[in-house]
Amino acid sequence: MQITTEDYHEFKPLLFSLGYRMLGSITEVEDSIQETFLKAYQIDTEDIDNKKAYLCKIMTNRCLDVLKSARYKREQYIGPWNPEPLLIDQPASYDPAESILQKEGLSIAYLRMMEFLRPEERAVLLLREVFNFTYLEIAAMIDKKEENCRKMFSRAKQKMAPVQDESLDYKNNKSIIDRFIQAFQTQDQDVLLELISDKVTLHSDGGGKVNAATRPIISAPNVLNFLYGIMKKMTGDFDFEVKMVNYQPGILIFIQNQLQSVFSFYIYEGKINEMYITLNPDKLRVQSIGN
After folding, report:
1. Domain RNA polymerase sigma-70 region: where (predicted)?
2. What pLDDT shows up at residue 222?
3. Distance between terminal CA atoms of the chain?
């Protein structure tokens, strides 16, 4: 059985979905996909009877290599590190409820929490919970014993517990974000404090390339003061729009028609518990993946 061009088009969205959840970086994922198929083309695949599992195995191990080699780079990163936002250029008729990729493991909150897992734990969690591979299949993919994979999955689930109850109801979340924007524009403090948690935390990612808070900002008053400070500093042609970011409502900020930042949110029990501002220009790209 040979890997074909048709296989590339069929499995690329799947590999992108796996790699993005593992790495949180679109550029690294795209490079890993190319290397996965290059390796698959070069290897004798006569004994391969499951192309999906075979390609996922190569992609997973490539992502593990990237994660291990990037550890020092991540440790040296200036300020909070946010995953590269996935800005979805969906058609006008798109219904977010129909997407098979939106539900597990794609929110910014989930991807940030993945940073606290060891690389192998990430792989096991995603392959089992999101992509429904058996423990036996996962063990073969990452060259571990089946029982070890079960233990890694259990540990990973415990570490991910803080975001397990995140609301992914797109329509309800968009209603909250719309109300937040209106209240922020009118400086309606009562509504703002109704919509955000008292202990809300803001993570501002500039990567040392643009001005951003180098430490998380905690508490409703501090976060609101920080946001108002940003607004006062904005000059020139300023605009914003609510768009789909990681299959959840987010805010895109434009200055002189150029994307300047992306706001994402972690919503729990009807309140905004965390905000993520991505300003690093290297992370502000529009990427569309199949629904």
Report:
1. 8-71
2. 96
3. 28
Task: Say yes or no to pLDDT of 108 above 50.
Answer: yes
Task: Please state, rounded to an integer, the average pLDDT across all residues of the chain.
Answer: 88
> What digits encode the pLDDT tens for the residues 229-239?
988 877 778 89
State whether residue 59 is helix, strand or coil: helix
Q: CA-to-CA distance for 65 and 114, rounded, in angstroms?
A: 16
Calculate the alpha carbon distances from 286 to 27, 114, 171, 243, 283 in Å.
12, 22, 22, 11, 9
**By the 8 A CB rule, do 197 and 271 touch?**
yes
Residue pointed to by tokens 């490539």: 62
Q: What are phi and psi of 79, to 5 degrees?
A: 80, -175
Bridge partners of 251, per DSSP, are: 242, 263
Torsion from C-alpha of 13, 15, 18, 24, nearest 10 degrees: -80
Confidence (pLDDT) at 103: 55
DSSP state of 87: B
Give the chain's domains with CATH numbers: 5-163 (no CATH), 170-283 (3.10.450.50)
